[in-house]
Amino acid sequence: MEAIVFMPLVAAFSVFPIWIVEQYLPVPWLVEELVKFVMVLYVARLKSIKGLVWVVASGLAYGVSEAFFYLFNLLSAGSIAPLVWRLALTLPMQLMTFLVLYYGALGGWLRKSVALILAFVIHFLFNLII
């Protein structure tokens, strides 16, 4: 079995160590996108539809995991509605940045750099607006 099958699991559980790092480096758009970029670089070596499938699965796993991570904070509000709203908004953003990073990872250093900067901007604007 290839190690690639564990990527969605790694993506899902990476939320917890990222949260710890963000306590000391409170720049979530930077920290999260760098970690996701490293994951995507590993998957991009497949250069096939199989790699794209694993990136989508990892993006979904990461997005769901991050949304449920906030469940502990939201339960104090007495309603599950904020979790549903956050999941509806966060999941597409996380998936989009995973796909942008994957597209970049398939190219040379310039495409990788542009994709990483674009993922930073998407995540930064998302955090600013939401």
Q: What topology emerges from the helices and strands here?
A:
Layout lengths: L6 H7 L1 H10 L3 H17 L4 H21 L1 H5 L5 H25 L3 H21 L1
Helix pairs in contact: 1-4, 2-3, 3-6, 3-7, 4-6, 6-7
What does this structure look like?
This protein has 130 residues and is an all-alpha fold. The protein has one domain (3-129). Helix content is 82%, strand content 0%. The chain has helices at 7-13, 15-24, 28-44, 49-69, 71-75, 81-105, 109-129. It starts with 6 loop residues before the first helix and ends with a helix.
> Structural class of the secondary elements?
mainly alpha
Mean pLDDT: 89
Radius of gyration: 15 Å
Number of strands: 0
Please report the number of helical segments.
7
What is the total domain count?
1
Q: Percent range for helical residues? A: over 70%
Q: What string gives the helices and strands in order?
A: HHHHHHH
Shape: globular
Q: Sheet with the most strands?
A: none
Quick structural overview:
With 130 residues, the protein is an all-alpha fold. It contains seven helices and no strands.
